[in-house]
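anyone else get weird line breaks when pasting these?? whatever heres mine. first is seq + tokens for prot A
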Amino acid sequence: MTSGPISISAPRSVPTIAPPPPAAVNPEATESQNRAESSRVITTSNKVENPSTDQSREQSSQNPGNLAALDADEQRVVEQLKARDREVRAHEQAHLAAAGSLATSGASFTYQTGPDGQRYAVGGEVGIESARVPGDPEATIARAQRIRRAALAPASPSAQDRSVAVAATATEQKAQAELAKQVEEERAQSAVSVFNDIAASTGENQEDETRSSDAIVEFDTFA
């Protein structure tokens, strides 16, 4: 897993409608009228395809509540966009809830303007801290486990989410190996320390016995 923030995101899906057929050219109409009709058709065909996030475009769009002015295909696209918006926001909220303090920011979204003039979220992502905890494999393991839970928290994880989860698992396994090595080294050092303590204690006992032996004085007894 790379160090620093990474992104876990919802897959982008953009509902579209088929563009209307080219305007018929009226042979009796003037050339300027035909050009105006062609321009109107091009504008209509592009209004769903362009996922612009321009605020000024949103403000100048048609009345969002005027669904009656939309044809059946446009109303279908609006319903698809509404469903997609709910799905994306729930997806990113699941990431945030599981990531907790590891989230580096709130969710950010990619929007598409629908035929009704409203903007709908069609993609999103959440930044999450992925750096290892230096010198602390236990903390690194705990962080990797949280990252994996956050990546797989949504009901339908994206390909990016699964990739982040795989990387987190690799980081966890590496940290577990480091922790096992660290524990083994600590046990070896502890065994050496215990051996040295026993050796030192044995040496002191031998010295005490020698001193006691030197202190004994024997006397001959005569009748």
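and prot B, same format (seq, then tokens)
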Amino acid sequence: MRTLWLLLILWPLCLRAAEPSPSPIRDTTAVEPVRLPAPAWSVGLRSAVVPGWGQFATGHPIRGTVLSVLDIWTYGDALQRTFQTLPRLRRKARDATLLADQQRSIAFHWVSDTSDSGKSNWASTSSLLKSLDSGASRARGQARISADYRDCEMAWAVGMHLYAVADAAEEGWLQGGGRRGVKDMVVAAWASALLPGAGQIYNERYSKAALLYCGVIGAVSSWKAHQETVDFWRQEAAIARADSASTTTIDQQQAFFRKRRNQYIWGLGLIYVYQIVDAMVDARLSRVDQPFPIALEPLLPDPGLQVVWSF
């Protein structure tokens, strides 16, 4: 009974304690602190230190993540090849070549021996020598291909790094109040035709110019690396023919890297044409309130059409 009376007395106090406390009145007259955009040089410097850091600072985390992962992975793989894979492959190729040269000196000793045992030794030594030469050629080829990939990866990594810096700096400039002016299509087209990327710089599209140079640096470096690999396999083919060895694998490798080299040459041509068209389009979009400079008009009184250029 006492417990019942105690519950009846404490019940209103429990309900009152369970009621939510009123939220404090917010002073709407207080001025919220405004977060000012970082200067262009600041965010550009961040991406120079760590690719993608400037993109995070300008509010583009996805772009920053992609640039960080791609660039750091490419740099890492290139450095791993430089300090681990390449020394191991080159050491293996050097040892295989030295072993083949030693066996060749032994084979020359059996050439002057005209006895039956000398002829038998020469036959077995000659077969072994061809096998050692083939293995040495494969080892040298593996080292050359790894160096080819290392050079390509380093070039693309540097290009992406430059793009990350320019993109972050341009975004910081725009967020800080920067505005692009009205541009002329003819000037943009001629600038890009005379110097690739100049049209993008004229249009104040600096990140596009950096992306263009990323592609150019990567393509030129890859073309050069593949050309060196083609020359390497050409030398290996000459050595194999001098030793009367098979060149089937060597010819296949030479054809493969020659094809890859030619692809980068075609890629450079496409980049050149694209950057001219891109510069013209951006210049045109800067003056959207004006009539388009190229038009098709009827040719009167005769039936037909004429192209009108009003640059």
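btw re prot B: Residues 116 and 122 are 10 Å apart (CA to CA). The two ends are 101 Å apart (CA to CA).
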